[in-house]
Amino acid sequence: MGLADRAEPEDREQQAAVTRRLLYHLNAPITDHCHLRGVLPAPGAVRVAVRVGDDEDSRDLLYEIPDDTVTPYWIPGLLRTVLTGPRTYGSGDVDEVMGMTLIRLRPEEITPDPEPEQGRALTFVHALSDPGDVEDPFLIGFLMHGDGLLRLYVQRPDRPGIVGVDVRPAGTPHTALIASVPSLLGEEQYRRPAPDDPHCDLLVDLTGW
């Protein structure tokens, strides 16, 4: 029986969610001189391959993270913590796989680094950028501005005009807010004029939502 045959549906869902979450780091380092090399499936866990260092001084590490200990959102912060500070591991937590040093993490003992501004913005943009109907996309632009503010430019197919939506993506992911953005566009209490932004017809201020 192969690995794919042993995978539970929950494992596959977690694996796919972690893969999507980490795609950004194919271009952006996880932290200084630490680059994503891959996301690999394992029974009840996900393994993240990271290259540490540059050129001839680099080495490849494979971090194993149990599925039931952390959500995909926290994994980049978890990796930043273990990659930026000295840590000790027991002999049972270290192995060798495919030429990489395998390290089995215990997430309950690790405090994830806070997500940087770009990562928090990415959460919102990814969640709203699924085109659904490619002829009528919802999210058509974004701007990081001000002090931790993200302006989303959206257009509903059933209404004319472009709407700028201001959110403050700090802390944990605001999944309820992300899901509610389309319906909140019509709420008068959040609507504002946009005299200083020529890229939208009005603003919806959700920074206090």
Helix percent band:
10-25%
The low-confidence runs, each spanning 5 or more residues with pLDDT under 50, are 1-6
Distance between the termini: 49 Å
User: Whole-number radius of gyration?
Assistant: 20 Å
Largest sheet: 5 strands, mixed
Overall average residue pLDDT: 83
Structural class: alpha+beta
How many strand elements?
Answer: 10
Q: Order of helices and strands, N to C? A: HHEEEHEEHEEEHEE
Form type: elongated
**How many helical elements?**
5
Percent of residues in β-strands: 25-35%
Q: Biggest sheet, strands in spatial order?
A: 1-2-3-5-4
Any key phrases for this structure?
alpha+beta, five-stranded mixed beta sheet, 5 helices, disordered N terminus
Description:
Strands 1-2-3-5-4 form a five-stranded mixed β-sheet. A five-stranded mixed β-sheet has the order 6-7-8-10-9, covered by helices on one side. It contains five helices and ten strands; from the N terminus they run ααβββαββαβββαββ. It is an alpha+beta fold and 209 residues long. The chain has helices spanning 3-6, 9-22, 75-84, 117-128, 175-184, and strands spanning 34-42, 45-52, 59-66, 94-97, 100-104, 139-145, 149-154, 163-167, 191-192, 202-205.
Short synopsis of the structure:
The chain has 209 residues and is α+β, with helices and mostly antiparallel strands. Helix content is 24%, strand content 28%.
List the helices and strands and how they pair.
Layout: H1 3-6, H2 9-22, E1 34-42, E2 45-52, E3 59-66, H3 75-84, E4 94-97, E5 100-104, H4 117-128, E6 139-145, E7 149-154, E8 163-167, H5 175-184, E9 191-192, E10 202-205
Parallel strand pairs: 3-5, 8-10
Antiparallel strand pairs: 1-2, 2-3, 4-5, 6-7, 7-8, 9-10
